[in-house]
Specification:
With 183 residues, this protein is of the alpha+beta class. The chain folds into two domains: 5-103, Jelly Rolls, CATH 2.60.120.10; 107-177, no CATH class. The chain has four helices and eleven strands, in the order E-E-E-E-E-E-E-E-E-E-H-H-E-H-H. The chain has helices at residues 107-121, 134-143, 155-167, 170-177, and strands at 9-13, 18-25, 30-36, 46-47, 51-58, 61-65, 68-72, 77-80, 86-89, 96-103, 146-147. The strands form three sheets. A six-stranded antiparallel beta sheet has the order 1-2-3-10-5-8, covered by helices on one side. It has a three-stranded antiparallel beta sheet with strand order 7-6-9, with no helix packed on it. Strand 6 (61-65) and strand 7 form a beta hairpin. The chain starts with 8 loop residues before the first strand and ends in a 6-residue tail after the last helix. The model is unreliable at 1-6 (pLDDT under 50).
């Protein structure tokens, strides 16, 4: 079911001053509009099962895909295929607005953003908005099908730690604390 603009879901991360608005979530695609603060960005990572296409709407964005930097202005695009190591950054003094389209769609991506931004709002992350609790981090990575740097780049490690988190009831507690918006 497509989401209309009026029903779009907006999540704010007060730690890194980003806003993620989910515009469309279907099986074949997920579309998110990101307002990225000046100097903002994310660390290199991979997504196992979906590609991400970045389209700049306002400002400038650098998207690095497998070591190749793409400096984009409004209208510019770059794509990170599944398993490509990538990240994005706003090296300017102004905010940047861009869309990310995931193909195929991935419902766990929204859950990961919702919980990660909720943890940040509750003061349960570092100043870089990384959850302080490694069980939370493992669940967020598992929900978004993401492989991070270092040991977090190993899906068996992520799966094992996420399984521990589920067995301990951490997943249920996070889902209750940061529930999905009603559609």
């Amino acid at each position: 079911m497509a989401i209309t603009q009026a029903a779009a879901r907006r999540y704010v991360n007060p730690v890194i001053q980003d806003v993620a608005t989910f515009l469309d979530t279907e099986d074949d695609r997920t579309v998110v509009e990101i307002e990225l603060a000046a100097g903002g960005g994310n660390p290199p990572h991979r997504h196992r099962s979906y590609a991400e296409r970045f389209t700049v709407l306002e400002g400038r964005l650098t998207v690095v895909v497998d070591g190749v930097a793409h400096d984009l202005e409004a209208g510019g695009q770059a794509t990170a295929p599944p398993m490509a190591r990538h990240n994005f950054a706003n090296a300017t003094a102004e905010r940047t607005v861009f869309r990310v389209e995931l193909r195929p769609g991935h419902p766990g991506f929204e859950k990961a953003i919702r919980v990660a931004y909720g943890l940040a709002a509750d003061g349960r992350t570092t100043r870089k908005a990384i959850p302080r609790n490694p069980l939370h981090t493992a669940l967020i990575l598992a929900w978004s099908d993401m492989l991070g740097p270092g040991l977090l780049g190993s899906s068996p490690v992520i799966r094992a730690v996420a399984s521990v988190a589920r067995a301990l009831g951490v997943e249920r507690r996070l889902e209750r604390r940061y529930p999905a918006a009603r559609r």
